[in-house]
Amino acid sequence: MISRQTLREEPERVRDALDAKGVEDVDLDEILEIYDEWRDLKGEGDELRHERNEVSRTIGELKREGKDEEAQEAIERSSELKERLQEVEARADELEAELEERMMQIPMLPDDDVPRGADESENVERRREGFDDLRALPDDVTPHYDLGEELDILDFERGAKVSGGGYYFAKGEGARLEHALTQFFLETHREQGYVDVFPPIPVNSRSMEGTGQFPKFTEDAYRLEGSHDEPYDDDDLWLLPTAEVPVTNLHRDEILLDDDLPLKYQAYSPNFRQEAGEHGTETRGIVRVHQFNKVEMVNFVRPEESDERFEGLVSEAESVLQALGLPYRILEMCTGDLGFTQAKKYDIEVWAPGDDMEEGPEQGGRWLEVSSVSNFREFQARRAGIQYRPEQHESAEYLHTLNGSGVAVPRVLVAILEYYQNEDATVDVPEPLQPYMGGQEVVEGREAVGETAVGDE
Hints:
Layout: H1 4-9, H2 11-20, H3 28-64, H4 68-103, E1 124-129, H5 144-150, E2 154-155, H6 156-163, E3 169-170, H7 173-191, E4 195-196, E5 202-204, H8 205-211, E6 222-224, E7 237-239, H9 244-248, E8 254-257, E9 263-272, E10 291-301, H10 306-324, E11 328-332, E12 344-352, E13 366-375, H11 379-384, E14 386-389, E15 397-398, E16 400-408, H12 409-419, E17 427-428, E18 442-443
């Protein structure tokens, strides 16, 4: 969350950020009124405590001097002060809780250099890579969902039968490609200095709150049903939407040392999101599914290193696409398309030539987001209570967190199946993946198992 100092000293900057991010459900004036009343009560409480201490000190003196009547008046005054102090503290505590809750609804302020814009149509393309030397493609590139079924490496019908819409089976060489991509991503980032973390898959509400998924986006999460009646609390468990949640919360409510930083973690995990499949044509195939695999990179850094680390994280994320030879572009999100928690964000989009559902390069096809690289500044660190101590004798400060996908496995698989497709419907395996597939160079598929479903004759 933002700091109370920012709320107090720069309310117009906060108001501008709400407008820039298109946030309409936050009443900033009301929050400021709550803050002012809370601050006034805190000040009154301090004065009451000071006066009560002074009165208590004089009571003994008055008694020793035999001034019983004045001592009794002081005792009555002390009682009045105590009663008022209890009222003030009770109301201040009530306002404190309300203020904390309301401030959780205020998004991170965009960096000053983030492009101003209303929505994704005003994002800024920073550069394209890999289009100077495109490989020869078939005259008609078969979309991955059709090719996957023809080769029997993707099975959507059985995925829906087992789990419902938005799920699929990767089979045979399809499954091997997913495993190979995951291992290649992990090994690449390991060489970039990342420490491996294998996180728990269920996460509690406090963790989701710490990274900013809650309370805004509970409708997108899969909750593990239990005995809890409340909408969510610290004991509720949710299937993680991204490994960003458990890995960031790895150091929740901790004070790190200056020598610990920077910290670079990477984590593979399956991810679960209910919002998948809401975008019409994207319900076909594996572009938007409810469960998908991803390697996530999470960084903890000193504030002064934040900008440089952001650029480094972008380079680390795009390095896997460069190695795989996949064409891609980098977009900078405008304020209106910037997420709730982010101060700055770049999306890395790979080119998939099999469909023409979006405006792609001159060759047709579409862009698929495979990585979002975000700088949260101290926003998540405040919510999760993650600090560091610059020097042993100095006060602890909030550090900065950043993260980037390294990258989303299914969408890269889509790009490989379409970009490395051959005229005979086979698919070349990119050279970096071949060692993870036992030296296999071409995906040829296999004959489908079985004839028809029972009752379909």
